[in-house]
Amino acid sequence: MSRQNSVSLRSQRWFGPDNLRSFGHRSRAASMGCTHEDYDGKPVIAIINTWSEANPCHIHLRDRANDVKRGVLQAGGFPMEIPAISLGETFQKPTTMMYRNLLAMETEELLRSYPADGCVLLGGCDKNTPALLMGAISMNLPSIFVPAGPMLRGNWHGSVLGSGSDVVKYWSERRAGNIDLRAWQEIEDGIARSPGTCMTMGTASTMTSVAEVLGFSLPGASSIPAVDSNHPKMASLSGRRIVEMVWEDLKPRDFLTDSSFDNAIATVLALAGSTNAVIHLLALAGRAGIRLALERFDELSSTTPVLANIRPSGKYLMEDFYYAGGLPALLRALAPKLDLGARTVTGKTLGENISSAKTYNQDVIRPLDNPVYGSSGLAILRGNLAPNGAVIKSAAAEPRLLKHSGRAIVFDSYQEMNARIDDPALDVDADSVLVLRNAGPKGAPGMPEWGQLPIPQKLLAAGVRDMVRMSDARMSGTHYGACILHVSPESFVGGPLALLHEGDVVELDVAARQLNMRISEEELSRRRTAWRPREGIFLRGYGRLFMQHIQQADQGCDFDFLEGTAPVPEPEIH
Description:
Blueprint: H1 12-15, H2 20-31, H3 36-39, E1 44-49, H4 61-74, E2 78-83, H5 97-113, E3 118-123, H6 128-139, E4 143-147, E5 154-156, E6 159-161, H7 165-175, H8 181-190, H9 203-214, H10 230-248, H11 252-255, H12 258-270, H13 276-287, H14 295-301, H15 318-323, H16 326-333, H17 350-354, E7 378-381, E8 390-393, E9 403-411, H18 414-420, E10 433-436, H19 457-461, E11 469-471, E12 483-485, E13 505-509, E14 514-517, H20 521-530, H21 541-549
């Protein structure tokens, strides 16, 4: 699309014709102080902003939207900020995952129904990133992503604190009686010191890194701390670039390929990133019309080392990662494992984007010949407990637990787990396998981050800090431990996890990729015949829609009617 061919701009269907309907559009623009010169023949850029006071990770995005607008105006575009639902990981219950698809639908419909030629997506907190990208891929207008950025490092008594990871660590010590209430409150006041997302390699930084390596963000954008002065510069540059992308007609499905997704998986593995990325990448690939199998994560895991020495699997935090060179430096180190010819929003290839990247601290970003771990440790397990797969991040677990058998201690709900876990009479020891079920996509509902089951208080007091734990739930990317997640099919729909009895022996063998319960096929069949489904809790509204259409974890938990690349009909302008 040439700059002279402005009549082909999508927005001109709203503003261009000499008719009654366009009169209404132009007159209402005038009521906001705009003139014809503001938008006539110029790309209209929708700024989809997930700012909200219910989402502290995004509290600075109101300012970043203004930075984006500045860039759009400088490049000769017309910015139009549109608020969207914000998925606040901290406050929204039972889980933002229940609303990821709602934000994806909203993003797609905002872009479809308003006069947008291209869009800038503002987000970063966990599920916001995949949701925004899912909607943008489906609508397939020129799109660029501006990540919220990680917050500053936490601090307590001179010790560096990391989101989530240190919360779990010190909460275990508090439950064990090793720190008092005053110390706990000091940690509370010192762990979150600025706007931005978790500063560990949790789901937020994992997914903004995924957005960047898939090609949706400017090089280095995902690593910049939220309050660094380079962050508003990046936002402004993104505003400038999206206008150019409209004229170039560069759309998401023009640069998303099988290789792009292999690059994203390899990057997640090299970062020792969140297990949540497995579900989100499956959903993103489905929106792009790309068939991505769960086994692809396992295949790449065996050949991809961990190069980022970042908590929860390493030592440092995102601020250190940025100073060490950020994602471009990691991608340069990982280059032999990547397809450097993949295209990006810059109009250049991934290889061109990272060609000048340097690593400034080789303990934070390791070279291939000195990795943190020789392989990523992300494993896809199968067996009679998980015929459609389960996920474990072995790099975050105690190695002794990676081949393990133990008696199952089974909790049928999160509420039951909380009621029983610290009961002195609970028949549990360090070799037991803690099991939570009815916590999957339909069972919870929404598949909350309940997968890091707490260690019983009496075992904490005895010095136990890790156990094998298993569920059909997810786990926060900031957490750690020998946690088997995403067991599929989930127990609520009659998956084998629903047939496990307390006292049954669970066998885990990560090297063999096996997860089984030690019972006969005959007994399993008998239990399956006796199993009865539970009632869902939603009788109306979005919850009912969710329960009717949500797919299982191995399919990305998208709605069955949203996956794929069916054309999006343009609205009638009348």
